[in-house]
Write a structure and sequence with these properties.
The chain has four helices and seven strands. It has helices spanning 12-38, 47-57, 59-63, 66-88, and strands at residues 2-9, 106-109, 114-116, 122-125, 132-137, 150-158, 161-168. Strand 4 (122-125) and strand 5 (132-137) form a beta hairpin.
Length: 180
Amino acid sequence: MIVLEFKLMGVPRQYAALDEVIRTTQFIRNKCVRQWMDGRGVKPYGLNRSCAVLAKEYAFARKLNSQARQTAAERAGAAITRFYQLCREHKPGKNGYPRFQKDCRSVEYKQTGWKLDQGRRAITFTDGIGAGRFTLKGTRDLLAYALEAIKRARVLRGADGYYARFAVDAERRHEVASSG
């Protein structure tokens, strides 16, 4: 996997919509952790089913793409699995009990919820939040990779703006010639 990063260029209204998407992702993850804390029989991968329940309960959660909701639940499940693994290994110190997120900075889309344009210089988010179309600013070229090779898109809020990271299924081959 290769990760390519691009800066998202948009208007303040679009950035506010991305903030709403990130807050919704944080809400879903925290709800999944709370469900695990309240019901001890909940399995980490059973949390994906609770995403549909949350979407029916809360209108703002329904606007978020279903795969982005599942990714938030998978993050909570990974924290729970990591906690159990550290407990089994009897490591001293803190065992990493899953905590609620106070400052979430990213949302991850799998195959749906986003679309690249023909020239792969802009990304459009198609979920119900309405972030819209952003221009991608970066040094790499996404045209070198097939659309099927781009597996995930993650939106990150940084100190100086918003970034999109694309996980591309490709291998880097560097052949080094022997200098003798």
